[in-house]
Amino acid sequence: WSTVIISINNDDPQEWKEKYRRTANEENHLTGKEVFQNPSDPLKFLIVCDKLLTGFDAPVLQVMYLDQRMKEHTLLQAIARTNRPYPRKKYGLVVDYVGVGRELAQALAIFDKEDLHGIFSVDDIKNEIAFLKESHEKAMILFKKVKRDGKPTDVIQQCLEILKPEDVRSEFEVLFRNFAKSMDMLMPDPCVDPFLKDFKFLGMIREGARNLYRDDRLSLVNCSKKVENLIHAHIKDAGVEEILTPINITAPDFEEKLEIKGSTKAKASHVEHAIRETISAKIGEDPAFYESLKDRLESLIEADRKRRKDEAELLKGLVEISKQEERRDLIAKEKDLLPDEFAFYGLLGNYKDELFGENDEKTCLVTKDIVSIIKNKMVIDWIEKEDIQKEMRRNIKDILRKIGFPSDKLEFFIREILELARARFRDDNGTN
What is the pTM of this model? Predict the structure, then answer.
C-alpha cells in the first residue's frame, strides 16, 4: 500500500487536513525502520512533494518516480535518496516523467568529478547495453555445444555435466553475475528482449547446478529479488521444478523422485551428490560409520572413472550405498544400542579385534559404559567446563585400562571420544 507525506497548511482543503495531517512522531514512524524501511511491511510507496529530500536515510528505497522539475542541489539530493547500497541492491533507479536530463547535467557540472566518484555515475544507456551484449556472449560460451531443442531433462543434464568441475562453476558464477547485473539494471527496457530467453535459461541451469552440487555460491539469493523472481517463474512455467529439485536419500519418496531425473547417468549424479551431502552433514556425529560410507563411495566413483563399471552398475552401487543410512538404525537395534551409543560403538569397533576378538557383546557393553559416564557427568554448558571434561576423561580412562586398551593409543582415543560427545551432545544439559 502507499501513503502521502506532505505538510498541511491552514488554507488546504479540510479533507486533506483530516486525511494527511500527522505529527512528527507519526511521520517518523511511517518512514522509519518499523514501517517503510522494513522490507516485509506492506507499505511500498511514499508520495511526497518536497518532503524527505534531505535527511531521509532509507537504503531500502529502490525507485524514485520523479514528476516535477528540480535543479542543482535539490535534484542531486532527490536522486541521492535512492543511491544508498543495501543487501541485494546495487543501484537506485529514477523514473523521470518530466525530463530532467539537462538539469542533471548542470547540477553535476557544479562539482568536481573526484567529488562525485562513488556517489553518482551517470552513463549513457548505450554503454550499459554494450556491456550487456558482452556479458551475455561470455556467459553463453560455456554451453555453446549444447543443443537446446532436445528433451528438457537431457538439455539440463548436459549443462550440469559441464558445470561438474568446481573451477568451471566458479567461472560460471562470475559470468552469470555480470550478465544478471546488466539485465537487472536495464529490465524492463525493451533493449533486453533479445537476451531474455538465454538469461532465463542460464538462471535455470544455475539453480540446477546449485541444487545438484550443493553449491550455495550459485544461489539466486545472491541476485536481486527481480532476477530471482524472474528465474523461479521461468522454472515453474517450463515444468522443470522436479527435475531441478535436489533429492534426499533418507526421504520416503527417494526412489520416486529419482525416477524423474532422466537418464541413468543423471540419476547416478543426483544420488552421488545426495550421499556426499549426507556424509558432510553427519560425519561429525558418527565418524566411523560415515567415514566407511565415504570410503565406499570414493571406491565406487574411482572404479567408474577407470571404466570398470557401466552407468547402470554405477547407479545400482550408489543406490545401495544410499540405503546404508537406513541399515545403520537396524544394525543398532540388532545390537541393542541406542543411536547415540551406536556412534561410540563405531569408534570402539576400530579396536575390537585386538581387545575382544569375536566378542561383539563385550564391545557393546563397554560402549554403553562409556556413554553412561558422559551423560551422567553432563551439566548445563558442560562443553565450556574443563573440569567436567577432565572428570569424564579420567573415568573413561579407568574403563579402558581395565579392558587392556593399548596405552600408546589411549590418549588419542579418549580425544576422539570427547570430540564425538561434543558433536552429539552439544545442546544437552544432562537432564535426560
Answer: 0.75
